[in-house]
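During the no-cost extension, the postdoctoral fellow (Dr. R.K.) reprocessed legacy sequence entries with the updated structure-token encoder. One reprocessed record is reproduced below for audit purposes.
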Amino acid sequence: MKITNVETHMVQIPLKPERRMKSSLGQHIVSPYLIVRVVTDDGVEGVGEATVMPRWSGETVWSAAALIEHVLAGQVIGRDPTDIRGLAYAMDRAAAHNWFTKAAIEMACWDIAGKAAGQPVYELLGGAVRPLTFRCRFSLGAYEPERARRRATELVEEGFQTIKVKVGGDPDADIERVSIVREVAGPGRDIVIDANCGWDAQTAIEACDRMRDLNVGVFEQPTPDGDYAAMAQVRRGIEPEVMADDICFNMIHARELIRNECCDVISLYPGKQGGIQKCVDIINFAEQNGVACSIGSNLEWDIATAAMGHVIVACKNMQVEKYPGDVLGPDYHEVRIAKNPIEINGPLVTITDRPGLGIDVDWDVVDQHRM
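Re-encoded structure tokens follow.
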């Protein structure tokens, strides 16, 4: 079986008004992403998704489409789609970085491999180590007090046991928001905070000390991208555990995080890591070094969400029971691009045991929202 064609489809879908995200990185109101279809000479097709965001990885839907059409497609056409490592090596030799773009092709090839084998991707990764249904946290944006109180109340009513609160801006406003969420959530639910690289080390430590009575369990990405020393300083200076996210895209980053004792947990997901296999490799490396992993989100649609779910189900060190992740992206959007969407019921997400990623794209919806 050989790859014969790689198609790109630029699509734009708005978020539901009540779920529009606001963080130290800015606002997320609409999602312009890229859907990739990989075709083989055996007639087996796979789909992938580049959940691009320029302020996150530097990629855009236009750069992703251009890179695939003019560089990466030429590297993978004619190759065996089940040779995942070989495909990744060829793409990495042709272009640096561009993690979400490469991940779209790679997850489409996993989809093909699963369909060809008649197995879900999690079986190809070694089999299920946890149920196909898992619990998620909810990320509450950096909202003003009234909206934060309203959303926190709704999340409690929906059954969320863990709420992540976006911080990283003005510490006074952020601490007020976390205080409101704790008041609404009560003492029995977990609160995580996420600065998205928004604070320096001293600000993060001081803010965390001021929140000592709010029982914050995990502080995600307190300091800027690339500053391992600052993150290690925060970890030494606060009581909550520290989770790395925005600072970790590849294995080199993971090694530096662990070598510098920067974190207790690493937030990973296939798009950010450049593909399912690279994500799994980091999960296994972290496990060997006694560091837990959880799943993060870029507000994916159903294709990339399915890829995330298969990694969760197959990887023991993806410790979502202790550190619930974000796998709710499709439910943030006004339209679903799948004929058989991922099942999302409040905090509970269920993936399918159908072959491949288990997602059938609704190409009519894609055409209706094409850019």
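The chain has two domains: 3-117+364-368, 123-350. The chain has a mean pLDDT of 96. The remaining legacy entries will be reprocessed before the final report is submitted.
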